[in-house]
Write a structure and sequence with these properties.
This protein is α+β, with helices and mostly antiparallel strands and 544 residues long. It has 17 helices and 20 strands. A hairpin with a 2-residue loop joins strand 6 and strand 7. About 4% of the residues have low confidence.
Amino acid sequence: MPRKPKSHTPKKTLGERLGHASGWLPAVAAFLILCLFAAAGAALFDVNSIPKTGQKANVTGLSAQGTAGLGRLLEARGHEVVVNRLEDGPLIDHAALEIITLDDDGGTLTYAYHFDEEDASSASEETSSASESDEENYGAVQIPDPKRSKHVLSAPLGKVVLIVAPKWNAGRDPRNRYWDRGPSLVAKSNVTESLGFLSPMHEVKAPEDDKEAALKMAASPPGTKTVRNGDMLVTFDDMAYVVNRDSRLVVTPAEPSGDTNSDAIANELNKLTPTSEPMKHLWAFTPALGDSAFKTPLTVGAITALQSITGPNLQPVLVGPNGEAVLSRLIVTGGRAQPKVPVYLLSDPDLLNNQILSDPQKVLSALTLIDTISPKATKPGRVIFNLTFNGLSLDHDLLHVLSRPPFIGVPLCLLIAGLGLMWAAFARFGPAREAPAGAPLGRGVKILADNAARLMAITLKEVKLGPAYADLVRDLVIKDKGYRAGISTESPDALADRIGRTHLTADTFTDLKTRAGKVMTVHQLIDITLKLHAWKTEIQRAHT
């Protein structure tokens, strides 16, 4: 059985397949391009945006341990509140007050690295009998961050700096990320480690000889510590901060097991290791002896496990009934230069965190504390919350450079140029046109015709085309009137004259053709072609 021949149907173009929907393609393309520019602009100009950190003990935290409520209170009073994440500060003048809220995330600590090539190659062969001095001289040692110390002591962002010490472990519940986990106190050792940056730090180039460097490290002045960080020796004060909390020792009774002797032994062991239970009391703080910053006592209401911090470089400003230092002023010991601006340490963050929103007295006390330590001014000043101490800082890169003066003009010009090019493209090409019904001339045919015309113009033979154009117009008119070649006994010119006389044309074809053969210039050729076109138009109009 013979196979049926396959029908070859022409493939439809994309415009034919889409139909009327093809008219939406330019709009869709414009929308996508605008979204691209919008995304680039958002990434470029929002480099100092406030991060979404959830339950954190900083200005972004909404939990009880955060300070987002304080920021909103200050905004409601007319203060300009700025959240800074850039290491060199925001694009504004310095503020009246800079607030640094610390949490237990290691944002004020860094590591000093020193590895010797010989020790690194033979590390796998060493035994556990290595001395402690070798462990301190080589490897990674956690030290206060010199960059943080320099910021607080010599390059602050405010005329006054308030540092809030950590107290609570704030974070999400591991079982449900939408919940805040129960409050627990930060270990006292972590609090003292996070405050190590409050003393000056000195960096010098380390000797090339390791033994000489070890001698310099061992000869560190009393009360200081020197460690090696690469090719630098870092010296900082080894401050002995004392952290106290309002708590009591509680002996937890052992659960009865049925054995009298075992229960008695368990109870005796629990008496030897009592647990610390936080206490909640009403507190009122008075100005410290010899300090004139606060004129009247400050009543703050109930606080759980009041935290106080003392140290050789802390001068008390506000103290409790038993001398608990709640607010202290930072000083530099050893006859060295004092901080550039007044620096205060608030030992207990419960005086400023979101817990104050539950008690109007606490709100009033927090605002009074802020007003007292801030510079005196006729109107509320600018307040900067610095997040670079919370591990949320942004380093310098090309994006930040382009988003700040004087280079911000580069992305702006590129953005405007891109929008202009998009507008010019749509204005030039417009919507898609329908495909022509007939077979269009190929690109090669058009190029050949264009080349032939240019060749005639270069050889100055354009004037010789007059009779040929007259014959072309004559043939078009004869064909339009339905005459076919070879049927009429008349010559084509005579037939054209007869058609012209029938339609009462202004000129005869023979006369126009004769004049076309006598043209000498291009302008004369243009005139005669216009007359031939008018002769053809008169016949076509009379026919219609």
